[in-house]
Write a structure and sequence with these properties.
Length: 65
């Protein structure tokens, strides 16, 4: 199991897969730079920064589901 994907239980306000998808979709995407090594953020960093790349969004959604 990846250390970036871990089950998140009892998240307040996220009662269904639709709510999880909607929550993650509201977080803005960062512009990715060409020839840049991917940098994966932990959940707290991702949510505190208010934006993330595609992988950050996927990790959070998978953990919520």
């Amino acid at each position: 199991m990846s250390k970036f994907v871990c089950p998140l239980y009892n998240v307040r306000g996220i009662d269904s897969p639709f709510h999880a998808l909607r929550f993650v979709s509201l977080i803005p995407f960062e512009q990715e730079q060409l020839n840049h090594k991917p940098l994966y953020k932990r959940f707290h960093t991702f949510l505190a920064s208010g934006s993330g790349n595609l992988e950050d969004h996927c990790h959070l959604l998978c953990s919520l589901l």
